[in-house]
Amino acid sequence: MAAPAPAWLAPSLVGVLATVGSGVGYWNPSLWTDEAATISVASRPVPQIFAVVGHLDAVHAAYYVFMHVWISVLGIAPWSLRLPSVVAIGVAAAGVVVLGRQVANLRLGVTAGLLFAILPRVTWAATEARSFALVTMLAVWVTVVFMLAARGRTTWWILYAVLAAIGVALFVYFALVVLAHGISLIAWWARARKRPNAISWWMAASCSTAALTLPFVLVAARQVDHIHHSRPRLRGLPTQVGILQWFHGGPVSGHGPRLSAYFDPPLNWAIGATALAALSLALMGVGIFRATPSDASGQPTLVEMTLPWLLVPTLVVVAFSRVGSPVYTPRYMIASAPAVALLVAAGLLSLRHRTLIAVAVAAMVLFAAPDYVHQRTGTAKSHSDWKYAAAVIDGRAEPGDVVVFGKLADKEKQTTRKMAIAYPNAFDGLRDITLRRSAVERQALWPSTRPLAAVTGDINDARRVWLVSDSAAGHRWQQRRTSNLQLLESVGYRPVWSWSGPFTRIDELRQSGG
Predict the structure, then answer these.
(1) Within 13 Å, how many C-alpha atoms sit on residue 472's CB side?
(2) How far is the C-alpha of 203 from the C-alpha of 392, rounded, in Å?
(3) What is the pTM of this model?
(4) Which of 375, 399, 421 is the last residue in one of the domains?
(5) How far is CA 305 from CA 14, 281, 347, in A?
(6) 344 shares a domain with 448
(7) How confident is the model at residue 257, as a pLDDT?
């Protein structure tokens, strides 16, 4: 009789598969605004990082410190910046397997781990140099520890408090996962009337977490007005919560007119995401209603554990965004993705015919595939084409040339200089004449800019000038580019060549007669 497989084998295999799957082409998409923010802060000395997060972006403070150490070893490049996210998704998938085995059996755990690995929001997080993948990994494993602690093993509550504190430090919304655990315990106790002391231990652990993270949370709370999201509209919530939150992987915020971007051509990935959401939500419903409330393991059941995890973070953040400051955007809810995978797996495995299960799995893979491919295209991140634009500058510009960065269409106080933060090597040796103060000097994410009209005398007979503009459509933004061109022409430079991408326009100007 063959010996049983070791307990670590299935989680490890699923984790490796998830890492490989999410890592395919993860380096390919151009860096974009959020990732430039990571570079801007994490590339500074630690004291300067804390100088920034003391008044801005404190919710990412721990992530910036971690990335500071990381890039000091591996450098600044898309592959190195995003590698922690790829690995974190694999570790999270392994944790989903363990969690599924805790609440049901290994079959459910493996199925949920594999489904988790193909969720578009999850595969997107692997290509993002932000904290989302790490937060999701911690959400899974803190829930594994929570389930162990709920069985009455009080020593696990110490580890639970430590992991929860790290999670909150990485992203303050993690506190809502901890709150969901408390609701799970209350639901379990109300049904089974067992182990009420688990609630007391959870409260003690939660209070410990709160004590450890209180200074950080207070600083982050003072900065809530710096979060520039639109207030979620009721008519858009079904799309935001039902589709964009877990079944579409991208930075589309779903607020106001930007929601229409989800339906812009090409529609293949949007249709796939919608179909995946419909099928997954249906299977989740089946999993909820067919789950058996067995309490043989002395812990919360699958539904008692996953439903609060699924609902509480979204309900709290959306409600706060409706009545208070708008702090909701679909990608912030990724820490609940493991609960989605577990419920979908429960519904899938409750189907009676293997053929039906196979068809459903094939359909989910098919529906997720367009989004997966789209995420790994060069301009996947809000159409950012910075890597292509930077390559143009790197290939054509020469030391001593002048570069002028134009204002962004959607954020008038910011400029295309963000590209130089994301791809600094391409701009080495160029003179940035409109730079007023660097981001480090300002203790901010981005540098400040002087008007071009005030500094045209600083060109000092440069052989060439490179005008880097936002290529957003619209008369107003075309007018700004035209105005900059006219200013440069007035001091003796004429356009000789241009390049356009979906996000950026580059104009090369040379001295008249040169």
Answers:
(1) 17
(2) 57
(3) 0.92
(4) 375
(5) 22, 17, 15
(6) no
(7) 35
